[in-house]
Amino acid sequence: MSQSDNHYLSGIDLSVGSIIALTGCVGAAIVSRHGLPIAAAILGGLLVGLLFGIFNGFVISKTTIPPFIVTLATMNIAKGLAYVYTGGAPVRVVTKEWQFLGAGYIGPFPTPVIILIGVLILTGIIMNKTQIGRHIYAVGGNAQAAQFSGINVQKVKFFVHAYSGLLAGLAGMVLASRMYSGQPTAGDGAEMDAIAAVVVGGTSMAGGSGKIGGTIIGGLIIGVLNNGLNLLNVNSFWQYVVKGVVILLAVYIDFLRNTKSKR
Length: 263
Known about the structure:
This protein is mainly alpha-helical and 263 residues long. 75% of the residues lie in helices and 3% in strands. The protein has helices at 3-9, 16-32, 38-62, 67-86, 96-103, 111-129, 131-141, 143-148, 153-178, 190-200, 212-231, 236-262; strands spanning 91-92, 105-106, 109-110, 181-182. Strand 2 (105-106) and strand 3 (109-110) form a beta hairpin. Helix 3 (38-62) runs antiparallel to helix 9, helix 6 crosses helix 7 (131-141) and helix 10 (190-200) crosses helix 11 (212-231). The relative contact order is 0.15. InterPro entries: ABC_transp_permease (IPR001851).
């Protein structure tokens, strides 16, 4: 694999879908099996996601192993732990308090929408108004140049993956609440939807460019695509093909854009 090819793969986190599954199962089990409050379940799920993110960030920042490979490994670890922890069966929770996080309302607004807006605002502030955000763009564009300019590249990589794990844990809790259970199969394919959303939203696979607003649009496009294919009764197997083609086209357009900018 060439250095440029590795650069294209270097920032992809493949573990988010499995972290979603594991955190949802852990959170649901804290309530249904151990009888602890909902707050403890939420904190437990977030902690599991954060720990996986910290592990990813530590290994990636302290070694030269590409993040693509590290997160591929933790994807399988998290998925395996979810199956081992649950025995392959859903962990059901049907209390009204549990349902609030994923299926409740705050006034006229669904709780997941409020959570999404909060996450987007926080992430937007981090990326656009803080030093670490500027450093993330710099490291994404050229890690070596960022290192020479005095940026602590290891710190940036650690933060990015820890934050990704934390948000995956939050997504896992919301999804488990919405499905009234923690399921080891939850989150299957979420990493592909995430990649598709950011690429379609204009984030460069080469790193260094991309906006939260574009990712929101990309996520909406992928969501509409998924729902549209379901409404058209398109076979689920063909849906994978369609999303694969969408990702390929978006990456090719990004490739052409980067090639043109270098000229």
